[in-house]
Design goal:
Strand content: 15-25%
Strand order of the largest sheet: 2-1-3-4
CATH superfamily: Glutaredoxin
CATH topology: Glutaredoxin
CATH architecture: 3-Layer(aba) Sandwich
Number of helices: 2
Helix content: 10-25%
Number of strands: 4
Structural class: alpha+beta
Order of helices and strands: EHEEEH
Number of domains: 1
């Protein structure tokens, strides 16, 4: 089965685990089921994603966008805006791991 988007939440027992990433993972899973989207979007736990300096890390494919999600509210924003809406959530992204992403600068006007 191919998913439109696929997320991986690091639940490794090192640096990410101290932030309780299972809460973020469980939020994604329960909301996707609640919304009936588990055939189009999947979020799995993963081992180390090698982003320990920015933990906890979550990566969303096919875009390859890296996030630092600390709360269920953060997960809900990524669910609604990126996984469903297709628009990455810049203020939750890990800039150093999203090198090719064209971040907006403070001087750019907001889109209307």
């Amino acid at each position: 089965m191919r998913y439109k988007r696929h997320g991986f939440v690091c639940t490794n027992l090192s640096s990410c685990a101290k932030h309780e990433p299972e809460k973020v993972l469980n939020h994604f899973k329960s909301r996707l089921k609640e919304l009936g989207l588990q055939k189009d979007i999947r979020v799995n736990k993963s081992g180390c994603l090698d982003g320990c300096a920015y933990s906890p890390t979550t990566v969303i494919y096919p875009e390859g966008i890296w996030y630092r999600l600390l709360t269920e509210e953060d997960a809900e924003r990524v669910l609604q805006e990126h996984l469903i809406g297709g628009k990455p959530v810049e203020d939750l992204m890990i800039r150093e791991l999203n090198v090719g992403y064209p971040f907006k600068t403070q001087s750019e006007p907001a889109a209307r």
